[in-house]
Amino acid sequence: MHKLNDFISKEALDQALAEKVSQILQAAITLKGRASIAVSGGSTPKGFFAVLSNKDIDWKKVTITLADERWVDINDDASNTRLVHENLLQNKAASAKFFHLKQGENLCEETLADLNLAANSSLLPLDVLILGMGEDGHTASLFPCSEQIKQGLDINNEKALMKVEPKTAPHHRITFSFAALKQSKNTFLHVCGANKKQVLDKALSANDVFEMPIRAFLQDTDIDTQIFWAE
User: Is pTM beyond 0.85 here?
Assistant: First the structure.
């Protein structure tokens, strides 16, 4: 399921989304003593990150991670880890914990096994998931072009984290699977601009999740995906 929340500006969206997310995180901390959130990369969330980083949350009890990451050095311009450190792990949010998806030099089976164990024991299920969406309808690193897409969207996939090799985008990736992300207690899709609205409309017009993986989140009856969009 999904609900579209549209805003008159990106700034208004950033404020509303940050307020909503901060309330959820603090409520989770009050309830169970900790909270977790996975965010996405790209330029779209930078304004949201800036607002959220200044919210009054007990940040030391929050763990931040990424929905997916490119297997590049943290100093690389393509690193989502770098993006989060420079834009979200700032101000009041500087005391939050960060769960690194990119660990070590090689994305091998041993590394994946260690990361899966750590994610399952200390992170999942997520309290908040912030998704983005590509022009091809991919989300996280669930690419329609990849040979791993069937595994990635398999609801019975027991691996929370998996390696993906997209054919239409650079870099090997590590991504949370749909099965792991589906368990998130609050799911948001953050998109901006007329082009992304066209992609969104296309995604909502048909059902083939392998053509546009974002459909898995928009159309699953067990997921209440809140779409936050601004021109």
Answer: yes
